[in-house]
Amino acid sequence: MFKTSLLVIPFIALTVIAGLAQSPGVKFDRPPAATASPKPPFLVGERLTYEVSWQDFLVAGELVIETMERRSFEGVDGYHVSAQAQSVGLVSAIGKKIDDAYESFIDASTLQPFRAEKRMRHGKKRQQSSVAIDQEHRTARLADGRSLRLPAETYDLASLLFAIRGMDLTPGKSRTFNLLEDDKLYSIKIEPEGREKITTQAGSFDTIKIATRMADRANDKLYNLRLYVTNDQRRIPVLITAEPTWGSVRVQLISATPAIKK
């Protein structure tokens, strides 16, 4: 179980997804779900910057999501994407400096990850890890040489954010993803709920509201986490909200490159 405190607010948008998982609860015997569309909603060069605030007044961190490039990686035509989070302001000053980066390499033909890397800095403590994902044979090879068995539709944290953007977001059409994080597997159900008008520092947008919960655990609302993505071809997350026991968290878009058409 992930520990939550003020120090993890800057990357709440990444880690809260698996925050309440006590046990993986992942099924290995279900048939593979349909792969994502080969036409991704994200663009090479896209850079999305978010402000992370706590209790609607304390700006605690910054989150940047990027689609950096598309090229051949180890013989695979893929996208290189990243999600980076760091503490800022008072939270950074009174606690440990946090600077985390999650990078994923996504197969352009399936939009599923084949490699993931993570770099974490919490004060003086630094950690780095990587994993090679074989979607065809459903295995993951860790940096220490160990192998893990994987179910279909397995993603790392960075690629999961992009996968949600590419799924069918028709209200009522839910989809289950498997998340590989810290050598553990979590099964997460993504449920589009409907349309809602959302205003952030970047403007006002017509969005699709998305709920998340742990699959097979109907009462687990994952901190009541909600994602709001633009109701257009780009499917850009403009707002993420969560309600952990220690207060509400709001991750709002403040800038996008290329700019979003309002």
Residue share in helix? under 10%
Strand element count: 15
Compute the gyration radius: what is it? 17 Å
Query: What structural class do the secondary elements suggest?
Result: mainly beta
Described by strand count, sense and barrel closure, the largest sheet is: 15 strands, mixed
Mean pLDDT, rounded to whole units?
Answer: 81
Write down the secondary-structure element order: HEEEHEEEEEEHEEEEEE
Strand order of the largest sheet: 8-7-6-5-4-3-2-1-15-14-13-12-11-10-9
Distance between the termini: 39 Å
| Poorly predicted runs | 1-24, 31-37
Basic shape: globular
Query: What share of the residues does DSSP label as strand, in percent?
Result: over 45%
Count of domains: 1
Number of helical runs?
Answer: 3
What would you say about this model in short?
The chain has helices at 12-15, 89-94, 157-166; strands at residues 47-54, 58-73, 76-87, 98-107, 113-122, 125-134, 139-142, 147-149, 154-155, 175-181, 184-200, 203-214, 226-230, 237-242, 249-257. By secondary structure, it is mainly beta. The chain has one domain.
